């Protein structure tokens, strides 16, 4: 489904929840290269705050983060709603992360924090943006690295509505996803190692 929404991303930064993501992730909810792709909702309690995170991670065959998408909603002592994108470090900060749904308008997500292994950009999550995601077919997130090269990553919005409106994953489901992801990554790693060994053997024999 194509979205023609002209949503505008608000400029209110909410860095307070930036590091809470770490307590709610599990390796990755999806792996673009490993073949495990889906949106997922994970909920947990942190102190007196209930937090739900609807997420989609894109990683490499070796398990390295390419792009992580998080829609966080907290209730209780702390009430906040944020849309956050995580990308590898080494980004050109002034460019921010460009956000586009299908062929709609392109908006800029400002960076709020950079860690040794990733940079985070976030804004307040609005109902208009959520509705635009529900009506869309594909989300394009583009960051710019320190060499001024743009790195667009496309994320399918298939399954987003079901994950956002549906119940969170059970602990057993989270563990099952993590296990399947690790198995996929191990298979990819073995296949790569086998190809490398075959190439080395061929070079030694002159074939």
Q: Record the strand order, biggest sheet.
A: 1-2-3-4-8-7
- Structural class designation: alpha+beta
CATH class: Mainly Beta
Name the helicity range: 10-25%
Number of helical elements: 3
Name of the CATH homologous superfamily: Invasion associated locus B (IalB) protein
Strand content: 25-35%
Write up this protein.
A hairpin with a 2-residue loop joins strand 1 (40-46) and strand 2. The chain is globular. By secondary structure, the chain is an alpha+beta fold. The model is unreliable at 1-5 and 8-36 (pLDDT under 50). The chain starts with 39 loop residues before the first strand and ends with a helix. The chain has 3 helices and 10 strands. The strands form 2 sheets. It has a 6-stranded antiparallel β-sheet. The chain has a 4-stranded antiparallel β-sheet with strand order 6-5-9-10, with no helix packed on it. The protein has a single domain, classed as Invasion associated locus B (IalB) protein (Immunoglobulin-like, Sandwich).
